[in-house]
Amino acid sequence: MKANCWMGKKKVEVRDVPDPKILNSRDAIVRVTSTAICGSDLHLYNGFIPTMERGDVLGHEFMGEVVETGSGVKNLKVGDRVVVPFPIACGACNMCQRDLFSLCENSNPNAWIAEKLMGHSPAGLFGYSHMLGGYAGGQAEYARVPFADVGPIKVNGLPDEQVLFLSDIFPTGYMGAEMCNIQPGDVIAVWGCGPVGQFAIASAKLLGAERVIAIDRFPYRLRMAAEKAGATETINYEQESVLERLLELTGGRGPDACIDAVGMEAHGHAAIYAYDRAKQALMLESDRPIALREAIMACRPGGVLSVIGVYGGFIDKFPMGPLMNKSLTVRTGQTHVQRYLRPLLDRIERGEIDPSFVITHRLRLEEASEGFEMFLHKRDNCEKVVLTA
Amino acid sequence: MAPPRWREGNGTGKSVVGTARSLGWFSIGLGLAEVAMPRRLARMIGMDEDDSSRNILFAYGLREIATGVAILTSERPTGAVWARVGGDVLDLATLGRAMADDDSNRGRLTAATAAVLGVAALDLFTGRRLSRDGERDTMARGGAGVESGIRVSETVTIARPREEVYRFWRDFTNLPRFMEHLEAVQVLDDRRSHWRARAPAGSSVEWDAELIEDQPNERISWRSVQEADVANTGTVRFQVAPGNRGTEIHVSLRYDPPAGRLGALVAKLFGEEPSEQVKGDLRRLKQVLETGEVVHSDASVHPGLHPAQPSAAPATRESER
């Protein structure tokens, strides 16, 4: 089959690889009908996530048709149309039992590597390094889905483009907003208007936020946030001071909750960006936490910092003093996608949201490399690339 | 049988432990650099920037991190500091081989070799001081010989009832399902069983074991009977985890590897670290009891490095085991 493979830093290539097979009794094989390139794939593309191997099949946002099931899969049958969540979760361990699926204790066969870097290992993920499992991803014609009796959700009727993002970015944005514990009258600020940021904005509105302020540097992304996701105000950080503007917009209180939908490769003003970029290049810190620092400074005392942007390692100049003295609550995590599938599919079916609004480019799987380049450089107002096999 | 505690207050110990800690942090820093940017580092020290250099530096990085963590987390880091000495030897050998490679930058390699030699001298000095002080400590407690053999203690929590976990372990024929090196266990009678394990270089070792303690749902102990290739003894304890979290398993093993401590040190350098091995076995036990089988990814079915893509013929399939 054809699959999009990581071939080194800034290099992906669609290659012929063997078809996947059932390896565990609870596996299913899915013929992928739609798959997407995620912002977190760019961290792999840019070489910031360790333990990638040349030839790794990428992709953790995908859906398709079941073509084979292992003997332990009773809830799915050949021909079912399913969306697959990006974290792999067994459903039986203590974490899964508490609905913390992205912390599954059994799905990472390479847990020992992650334990060295983080103390404990999170769940295995599709197409996201060997440290997180060494699983082939879904930017391919077929994918093997472990624990198919736990993860995938059956979808009927709705087109791919409306349900594909249940695999990651819609639940991720939604969890980011849910962690804010939104109360009547709350103002939420969202750093980053990539696809996850767009869903964080839309979800904050769904959960009853009074106002949602979107922060980015690309006018087309801010425009989408205002026109499609429902942001009430936008801030272009290249044109005005984020902190000053947020104070002005909130009568000096600061946003009640701040969502970091940017993560480890943030951009920012020249001096601080150069500082973090240089330290990252010299391996003195692995992540550039520019948005995170700003969110801490901006947040209302007693407010919530919700971190859904991906971080990989270590950061520096972390404003712990402001965080502590302002009594902020930090909430974060890889998304526990399995717990959001049903409720969010219901919202889509009821017409409360149509997630396809983020799609700007539709390419064929063979054009994956072009898609990565376009997405990385925000060429042609690129927001979200969907690939079809 | 806790190892003798390292007391920072006694005599010369304090500064040596301080040096050891610095070496631990140095290991972690260097290790992170090797893991994160192996190619860049290869260029910096003058090695050819090909895939094999990258893989070597990446593996060495994991080794450095593990050693660093071991130094910083143990009360008396003697063994971990000696592991650094072993690592230095490996590093020097690698640099020596790179020196013979036409694509290498010899000036940079010479500088890197000098740096490793400097650090190696410090490692050696620290290791000798720690060993000497440690012996003195042990002698003072009248416990000479306590250190013989290799001891490993590991633990895991399994979300299953204690009775079930105990029963599974008590049937020794189940052990090869999660102990990677065990090929088969044959139960001979109430107390005795015959074990066969894979050994390095394709050989295998066999021995008879006897049950020496069996307290249902609490504790099982066994030991090899005389003339075993690898004399060994083990105890597993089952304890109810609080708040419906299942069962805590505490395993402690002691064994004398064929080549003694040197054999163990060499095995450590090549990733066969005994505690990692046991930890991996317990992780697989948890998978078997909680999910029904050992969990595989596309890469994990292969021994050693393999890209995360399906393979034409998987090396091990659960259904065939």
Provide a concise account of the structure shown.
The complex is a heterodimer of chains A (389) and B (321). Chain A has 389 residues and is of the alpha/beta class.
Notes on the protein architecture:
The complex is a heterodimer of chains A (389) and B (321). In chain A, the strands form 4 sheets. In chain A, strands 3, 5, 6, 9, 10, 17 and 18 form a 7-stranded mixed β-sheet that branches. In chain A, strands 13-12-11-14-15-16 form a 6-stranded parallel β-sheet, with helices on both faces. Chain A is of the alpha/beta class and 389 residues long. Helices cover 28% and strands 21% of the residues of chain A. Chain A has helices at 39-45, 94-97, 111-118, 160-163, 169-178, 195-206, 219-229, 242-249, 270-281, 290-298, 320-325, 341-349, 368-376; strands spanning 2-6, 12-16, 28-37, 56-57, 61-69, 81-84, 87-88, 124-125, 142-145, 153-154, 187-191, 211-216, 233-236, 257-260, 304-307, 329-332, 361-364, 385-388. Chain A contains 13 helices and 18 strands. The termini of chain A are close together. Chain A has 2 domains: 2-168 and 335-388, Medium-chain alcohol dehydrogenases, catalytic domain (Quinone Oxidoreductase, Chain A, domain 1), CATH 3.90.180.10; 170-332, Rossmann fold (3-Layer(aba) Sandwich), CATH 3.40.50. Chain B is an alpha+beta fold and 321 residues long. Chain B folds into 2 domains: 13-140, no CATH class; 150-291, START domain (Alpha-D-Glucose-1,6-Bisphosphate, Chain A, domain 4, 2-Layer Sandwich). A 7-stranded antiparallel β-sheet of chain B has the order 1-7-6-5-4-3-2, with helices on one face. In chain B, β3 (192-198) and β4 form a beta hairpin. In chain B, α1 runs antiparallel to α3 (51-73). The longest helix of chain B has 35 residues, at 106-140. The two termini of chain B are 37 Å apart. The chains are: A alpha/beta (389), B alpha+beta (321). At the A-B interface, β4 and α3 of A face α1, α3 and α8 of B.
